[in-house]
Amino acid sequence: MRAMVYRGPYKIRVEEKDVPAIEHPNDAVVRVALAAICGSDLHLYHGMMPDTRIGHTFGHEFIGVVEQVGSSVQSLQVGDRVMVPFNIFCGSCWFCSRGLYSNCHNVNPNATAVGGIYGYSHTTGGYDGGQAEYVRVPFADVGPVKIPDWMHDEDAVLLTDAAATGYFGAQLGEITEGDTVVVLGAGPVGLIAAQSAWLMGAGRVIVIDHLRERLEKARTMAHAETLDYDEYDDIVVEMKKQTDFLGADVVIEAVGAEADGNFLQHVAGTKLKLQGGSPVALNWAIDGVRKGGTVSVVGAYGPIPNAVKFGDALNKGLTLRMNQTPVKRQWPRMFEHVRNGHLTPREMVTHRFPLEDIAEAYHVFSAKLDGCIKPLILPRAD
Amino acid sequence: MTESDVPSAYVRDKRTPPPSREELRARIPGWGADLDPADRPSYPKLQYPADTGAHWDFPERQPGAEGRERSIEHAFVTPAFGTAQPLHGLSGAIRRLAYQRFSEGRLAHWMLLIVGDRVDAWESHLRSFVSGRPDVPATGLRGELTHSGPGSREGRSDKRHQVLDPVVVAGPWLAAAGATALGARAVVRALRR
Asked: What pLDDT was estimated at residue B62?
């Protein structure tokens, strides 16, 4: 089969690989119909995630058709069209039993600090991902769901991570009616977080970024006010001014480990890798939220330490909430919101690349060329 | 500044109340649909799902766990695991040391894994040079031409650090090429003596 393959930082290509096999009785093999590149894939692409091995196939956002099932699989049949949460989870460990699917303890031998994720290095279990023609799906009775007939494929693929993570981020903010919510980052996660903040009763939603096309999308798709941080000497001061010097009630950090906005932090963290990444957005969140407020973190960070202003968080009495998204837990309610048009994930799709052009897709997405907000990958040209 | 101009942060209530429910509902599709926390799927944090789809108390164990690396914070290799890219070569030895010797709580664990990644990359680059498909310092650069690279960056502040990308990406390759050339020259000179 054809598959995206990592060749080192800033280097990927498409290679011929073996079609995955059933390795556990509850595995399925899925033929990928549509995949996406996630902003967090760029952390792998830039060499920031420990134990990213040469030959690894990335991709944790995909939908497809069941091609083969293991001997113990009961809920899926060959030919079913499925959407697969980015989390790999067993459904029965201490954590899964309490709904913490993203923290499953039975799928990732390489680490206890993170669960299992498709195509996201060996630190998350060493599973090849879905930017390929086929992918192995462990615990097929637990993770995948048949795609509802009414659902558009592009909505389905975005619900496997980016959209679910935006919705989850708004929930972590514990928004109450009338709250002023600031969303840092107008990428796919931030845009859905902004839409979701309204669903939870926000009185005002402000999205901060510096890419004009993304800010425009935040205005049109998420009905948000926007601030371009390039236009301000100090965006934290502007956040205070915008909120009558209180600070925002809730800040959702939807940027993660490669934040821009501070040249030295970005170069030190993401270029020279002197820390686990660039925590600029997280520090803006801590500084820009009001005292006693809540910071929700859904931007992706790896296990290497970052210079985070923890003292400010302590002294302001903040609530910090975060996790990888337990995707499947979001779905029933999210399906209603998508069907009703309250959440519109596929509005974010700007580019569609054939698998053979995936190296170009990564570069365009990474460098934010051509107004790229969300690129999809088409594994087959037909 | 008169007393009525004193910002919200210094008085009891916000000076500007939020828009009314009616106003928000008219302007925002679905406003307030999840106003009640009970409608939010991740509230409360811990829930006990009635049916996760699992029909086991503990999953069957995937064959092949013997010898597979694992975090020493785990009691055993988990019942399911990835089998992609097993450990091999010098990078494999470095990674195995990271897993066997240091817990995830130790920075040495992660730093060794990063070192293993770089060694793995160079092992693979060297192998690629004798294959029909040699690695290059960066891929996908055709996108600069097909997706208006320079124009896309017009007026963007991240242009300042994006100019460093060629240095970050090509620098190690130039250094490796220089070291190889110097080494080769030294060997040639030594042989001539």
From this structure: 98
Q: Per the CB < 8 Å rule, is A168 touching B52?
A: no
Q: For residue B158, list chain A residues with Cβ-Cβ distance below 8 A.
A: 210, 260, 266, 368
Interface test with chain B among A41, A330, A369, A372, by most B beta carbons within 10 Å: A369
pLDDT for residue B169:
86
CB contact under 8 A, B33 and A96: no
**pLDDT below 50 — which residues of chain A?**
none
Q: Which CATH superfamily is domain A2-161+326-378 in?
A: Medium-chain alcohol dehydrogenases, catalytic domain (3.90.180.10)
Compare CB distances from A203 to B19, B45, B114 and report the shortest one's residue: B19
Same fold: A2-161+326-378 with A163-322: no
Instruction: Specify the fold of A163-322.
Output: Rossmann fold (3.40.50)
Which of B23, B12, B14, B10 lies closest to A179 in space, CA to CA? B14
Q: Which helix (H) or strand (E) holds A114?
A: none
